[in-house]
């Protein structure tokens, strides 16, 4: 069946460090892929998306590239800030959204 | 995107009671969904709220426990019936503006604690 696997958290980084959160998926066909972010006490916000192979989604300094050959959609940011502390969810769409388990990011000043 | 509001934002309820959560969107949308997020967990789809017909429930969720209404293209309700402490979760609605667009936008969530 369709599924999404994210790296275990929490991920703890110092401000201005480089961020990678790994996401791999299993799906039939060519699903659209998403990253959502959930700040403490809030709902989910769409961070970025990609709809086909080799597409790069980007927003607020975050990027992710749809890699069909490795079935991956890793999230990266060159320099994190304390305000990026949140839970990040990778998801795929195959008629409905299927979420990974979420990765907590803590950025320390 | 879409502006989505939910009421209540949080509640504390006694076991055996029911709570109805409202989801309002600022424009007409084709698809509305209800999710549950248990403490420290990911999101699980409860059902798709269909306008003018019965909701479509996912495996493990039933209409008697989670009745859903969708009277028009901007509004939906989810009721959590006969609550137990295991129902303590965040309940989120989401919308897809156009069918097949696949991008979903989420409301702020309703934080429910059942004692």
Work out the number of β strands of chain B. Answer: 11
Global shape of chain B: globular
Mean pLDDT of chain A, to the nearest integer, reads 95
SSE ordering of chain B? EEEEEEEEEEE
Poorly predicted runs of 5 or more residues of chain A: none
Nearest-angstrom radius of gyration of chain B?
13 Å
In terms of DSSP E residues, the strand content of chain B is: over 45%
Tell me the overall shape of chain A: globular
Give the beta-strand count of chain A: 12
- Largest interface between protein chains, with number of residues from each side: A-B, 18 and 17 residues
Put simply, the count of helices of chain A is 0
Please provide the ordered H/E string of secondary-structure elements of chain A: EEEEEEEEEEEE
Q: Oligomeric state of the chains?
A: heterodimer
Average pLDDT of chain B: 94
Report helical residue fraction of chain A: under 10%
Give the proportion of residues in helices of chain B.
under 10%
Count of DSSP-assigned helices of chain B: 0
Could you give the distance between the termini of chain B? 36 Å
